[in-house]
Amino acid sequence: MAVDKNLFLYDLAVVAIMKNEAPYVKEWLDFHILAGVEHFYIYDNDSPDNLREVLQPYIDEGFVTYKFYPGKARQYEAYNEAIQNYKFFCRYIAFIDADEFIFPQNNKNIVEVVDEILKDNSKAGGLAVNIYYFGSNNLEKADYSKGVLERFTRRAPVDWIPLISDRNLPGGTAHVSTITNPRKVHYFGNPHYAYYFENFNAVNSNGEKVPLFYNDPPLVDKIVMNHYSVKSKEEFFSKVTRGTADNKGNIYNLKLFEKSDHNEIFDDTILKYRDTHQQKIFETLAAKRQRVYTALLKSLSPTFSKNASKKTFAGKLETFLTCRRLAEYLRETAFNETVGNFFEEMSLEAIHKSLASTVTAADLRLLIYELPKILPLNYPAVKNIRQSCLKVIPNFMDTFRRPLVNSWQEFIKLNYVLEMLKSFDTKN
After folding, report:
1. pLDDT tens figures, 68-81
2. In angstroms, rounded to a whole number, what is the distance separating the alpha carbons of residues 115 and 292?
3. Which one-letter DSSP state was computed for residue 50?
4. pTM of model > 0.85
5. Phi, psi for residue 346 in degrees, rounded to 5
6. pLDDT tens figures, 347-384
7. How far apart are CA 113 and CA 146, in angstroms?
8. Are strands 223-227 and 124-133 parallel, antiparallel or unpaired?
9. Is the CATH number 3.10.50 carried by domain 5-276?
């Protein structure tokens, strides 16, 4: 059952990990704001340039949540941390790089396109978006007086699909980036592709299942990802000294430049899209809090009655988990501590009662991942949630009693959760 979209702080957010992207990030932010992105979670991978300074106005205006994130090869960590921390704040989250621009092909905003593709697909956990690779435009030198979108208007053709040599899988335009429903994501183990909870998967723009990090043949008629990884030769080779957030070594060399520098097709359509869109007027913080409050009241008020039927709770575990996190948000942002506490307590009670109905595997996973945040809370319903989990999880574990390695890995993980629940010293 779909969660009321008014419960979310943002319709669409972007997560990105960056290193030395200061010359480019303003254009990247401004374009995506025009295209409908409401918030950005940016992990700064130890950038020695002035990235934080460029981001500061967007932080001050509430568009960017910034985190300094040093260390080697931390992209997967950042992505998985963002899923854990922000999945109940955002209806959709896109996971992209600072040289990737999400580009709707029909002049709509990004959310409108994603909604149209996913709305009737109950198994869709995210949208896999094919990638256009833009080349150097045969430019040798960097010209930072102009934006990336203006300087680089030539790309590889849609049928540029080289095989990835070590795995014999399609690359190039067949590659995808992902816009997720974050509450269906199990984890990221590939920068282009999320692994989803049971019975969910990524789909392409035709609604067809995409099982890995590529979609072949590519679909670019509704939405595409413009990828400006090459830029000028000078900029490409500057990556030799700066390194990347997703690789411990350095892969930038002349051979890779020549392989990646495709300029066959002239394509400046993204400029026309940018120039015909006006910046969306975003909610004030006060309006956002009031909207969340109203949505919480609407979602939870049917559960207040002691005589509420089982139908009130059936199939709504995701909704009630979202309510709990948003109630916490209201309390922590000084909206009203008493109101936040009340809604959190009502959400927890609703979570407990929803466990008495049929619970999907995906919703149970979502709850299990939230248990470390829920179990320490000082509400009477927490003890009931713990007891219900001790009953429900063993039934779920039985589905993994199969002679497959991955199944037994899942069984063991769940058994650890079960043992943790048994030993948890609750204060309730």
Report:
1. 999 998 999 999 99
2. 21
3. S
4. yes
5. -65, -35
6. 999 999 999 988 999 999 999 999 999 999 999 999 99
7. 29
8. parallel
9. no
